[in-house]
UniProtKB/TrEMBL annotation:
Species whose genome carries this gene: Catagonus wagneri (Chacoan peccary)
UniProt-listed SUPFAM superfamilies: Intermediate filament protein, coiled coil region
Protein's name in the database: Keratin 35
UniProt entry tagged with the keyword Repeat: no
InterPro entries in alphabetical order: IF_conserved, IF_rod_dom, Keratin_I
Cellular compartments per GO CC: cytoplasm; intermediate filament
PANTHER family on file: INTERMEDIATE FILAMENT, KERATIN, TYPE I CUTICULAR HA5
Coiled-coil boundaries: 73-107, 179-206, 305-346
Length: 408
């Protein structure tokens, strides 16, 4: 490593520093100062502090070039005072903004949801009344339907009885016609019996027997024959009449039984249909009541959902405003932090300048001479104004030397 001694590299005073500078330019991200022999301990930073200098070399370089230390220090003090005043003003503004934010937060009343309990109770009571009225209407409708079904049932029964009466009347008319036919047959048979009796009498008159024995025997024989014939005819007529009557009675009984069974089946079917229709009407009324209840519930929950969405939208809007205020305050705080950092950097620079006033060296910087046998101690870096610039201390007294490679 390269070593520098006090005999080979000496710093000039501030009044004679103009001869030691050739160029001093600010770069992006760092500063570089190049001199013919040695450089002063201060190198201008390229960050926030370098921006305070308007010209290429900076006002500090110009102040050094003027050779007037008092004017330079006065300018630096004025600059420092203006920056301190700016810092105090920014602190006052920051405190005022914080107090305003605190007052606004204290004044800001949290949004309270309006109390709709009374309206909800009134709506629930009206809904209960509506449901009771609907249930009563459904019950009346069911009763009306039951009455209609009962009337239809009685009408059906009446029509059935009328049809049965007509059937019985038709059967009675048929039986009456049969009775008339049988009466006519009986009358014909009686007429035949009378005619046979008259014929018998005529035969008796026409055929008188000479002998009483023979007449008695012949008359008895003929009478027996005719009586047998009449008895046979009468028996045949009665048998035929009884047979026809029994057949008709059997037909009437079977028809009546069939009619009764059919009527019973029809009545059972009608009762089943009536019960099913009543149950269907009850199910329809129940479905209508449930649909109305569902519609009311959906409407109520839709209104409540709309209210909650409105509340959520208001809260989100307030959160967005608060977030925007926080971001703005954060940006202002970052700006203040940047200003504070620049001011601290400038204050450190001024402190380094004030400390460098005590460094009074000969006017002949970096005079060539023999290198001492005992080299200087290695340079120890200390805090400086900005990146790239180091202030070193060498035995026996502090001097400023360029960093290896020409970087500070």
């Amino acid at each position: 490593p390269r070593t520098y001694s006090s005999s080979s590299c000496k710093l000039p005073s501030l009044s004679r520093a103009a001869r030691s500078f050739s160029t001093c330019s600010a770069g992006l991200g760092r500063s570089s100062c190049r001199a013919a022999s040695c450089l002063p301990a201060l190198c201008l930073p390229a960050g926030g502090f370098a921006s305070g200098y308007s010209t290429g070399g900076g006002w500090f370089g110009e102040a050094i070039l003027t050779g007037n230390e008092k004017e330079t220090m006065q300018s630096l003090n004025d600059r420092l005072a203006s920056y301190l005043e700016k810092v105090r003003r920014l602190e006052r503004d920051n405190a005022e903004l914080e107090s305003r934010i605190r007052e606004w937060c204290e004044r800001q009343v949290p949004y309270l949801c309006p109390d709709y309990q009374a309206y909800f109770q009134t709506a629930e009571e009206l809904q209960k009344k509506t449901l009771c009225t609907k249930a009563e209407n459904a019950r009346l409708v069911v009763q009306i339907d039951n009455a209609k079904l009962a009337a239809d049932d009685f009408r059906t029964k009446y029509e059935t009885e009328v049809s049965m009466r007509q059937l019985v009347e038709s059967d009675m008319n048929g039986l009456r016609r049969i009775l008339d036919d049988l009466t006519l047959c009986k009358a014909d048979l009686e007429a035949q019996v009378e005619s046979l009796k008259e014929e018998l009498l005529c035969l008796k008159k026409n055929h008188e027997e000479v002998s009483m024995g023979e007449e008695v025997s012949m008359g008895e024989e003929m009478r027996c024959q005719y009586e047998t014939l009449v008895e046979n005819n009468r028996r045949d007529a009665e048998d035929w009449f009884n047979t026809q009557t029994e057949e008709l009675n059997q037909q009437v009984v079977s028809s009546s039984e069939q009619l009764q069974s059919c009527q019973t089946d029809v009545m059972e079917l009608r009762r089943t249909v009536s019960a099913l229709e009543i149950e269907l009407q009850a199910q329809h009324s129940t479905r209508d009541a449930l649909e109305s209840t569902l519609a009311g519930t959906e409407a109520r929950y839709s209104s409540q959902l709309a209210q909650m969405q409105g509340l959520i939208s208001n809260v989100e809007a307030q959160l967005a405003e608060i977030r925007a205020d926080l971001e703005r305050q954060n940006q202002e705080y970052q700006v203040l932090l940047d200003v504070r950092a620049r001011l601290e950097c400038e204050i450190n620079t001024y402190r380094g300048l004030l400390e460098s006033e005590d460094c009074k060296l000969p006017c002949n910087p970096c005079a060539p001479g023999p290198v001492p046998s005992k080299p200087c101690l290695p340079c120890l870096p200390v805090a400086s104004c900005g990146p790239g610039a180091v202030r070193t201390t060498c035995s026996p007294r502090p001097i400023c030397v360029p960093c290896p490679g020409g970087r500070f």
